[in-house]
């Protein structure tokens, strides 16, 4: 199975305030800040990586917190909902915690035989906490307030909203190795058997919905996981052969990646497991230092004056 897509690698979203974003994901949700770095194209903006202890692929939600950016709008051609796996019986804990922190939430519902609780982060990004049918054995990051009985395990799924799901579904099945599992109204669930977790992609067909606007509170792109660079480049050939424009291999310091837009307009990335997040910090130190891409290290002093204070 090593030569297959291994589910989700990471998801990247946009926020408008770095400190508020950091406080919410580490303080309220209890995730670990695995890496504190900067945007490759805009070094005056942070790039946060939140996840489990080591930043295992399939647990990482990343953010570009562009200070003061306007609100985005979810719509077609966009990833619209993030699904996280949480332990069975934990949704009541989360509902109470969200009330405590005044987090906007909906009532718990059941979909595809799984109970879920939907809420939005401070920028309006929609997230679902899901109690999966299958026991999730992944070890979560724990805090004093969020213990292993409630802590987030990692991704369960991603939802893509599209005007027409057919071209995207064909890409998922024919190239990325997913299969249609079931349908609920206009929502189609695809799953890969190559991995147990972070294995679900839901396609929502909404032909009359307006296209999304990418800004604060929306997802920027979805990254799928591959084992290594050799497999990454094999997928590049498959995707290019379908007439889709795809980038050259890019070194993102902690993984190698390719980017392309799938037929419905969502920005996809393929990202490798290697080398991982402990290449420039020890595991116990992850997220505690500002780590800069090599090309920006000579400008560290200037960059540090531009970045917002998180304390």
Structure in a nutshell:
The protein has 311 residues and is α+β, with helices and mostly antiparallel strands. The chain is built from 5 helices and 16 strands.
Written description of the protein model:
By secondary structure, the protein is α+β, with helices and mostly antiparallel strands. The strands form two sheets. It has an eight-stranded mixed beta sheet. Strands 6-7-8-5-9-12-11-10 form an eight-stranded mixed beta sheet, with helices on one face. The protein contains five helices and 16 strands.
Essential attributes:
311 residues, alpha+beta, 2,3-Dihydroxybiphenyl 1,2-Dioxygenase, domain 1, 8-stranded mixed sheet, 5 helices, 16 strands, globular
SSE layout:
Elements: E1 8-15, H1 18-28, E2 32-39, E3 42-51, E4 60-65, E5 78-85, H2 91-100, E6 109-111, E7 114-120, E8 126-131, E9 154-162, H3 166-174, E10 179-184, E11 187-191, E12 200-205, E13 219-226, H4 229-240, E14 250-251, E15 255-261, E16 267-275, H5 300-306
Parallel strand pairs: 1-4, 5-8, 9-12, 13-16
Antiparallel strand pairs: 1-13, 2-3, 3-4, 5-9, 6-7, 7-8, 10-11, 11-12, 14-15, 15-16
Structural class: alpha+beta
What does the main sheet amount to? Answer: 8 strands, mixed
Tell me the count of domains.
1
Shape: globular
Strand content: 25-35%
The CATH level-2 architecture is identified as Roll
**Tally of helical segments:** 5
Taken in chain order, the helices and strands follow as EHEEEEHEEEEHEEEEHEEEH
Number of strands: 16
Please identify which CATH superfamily we are dealing with: 2,3-Dihydroxybiphenyl 1,2-Dioxygenase, domain 1
Radius of gyration from CA coordinates: 18 Å
Given this structure, which CATH class is correct? Answer: Alpha Beta
CATH topology heading: 2,3-Dihydroxybiphenyl 1,2-Dioxygenase, domain 1
Mean pLDDT: 97
Low-confidence stretches: none
Give helix % range.
10-25%
Please, what is the oligomeric state?
single chain
Q: How far is the first residue's CA from the last residue's CA? A: 44 Å
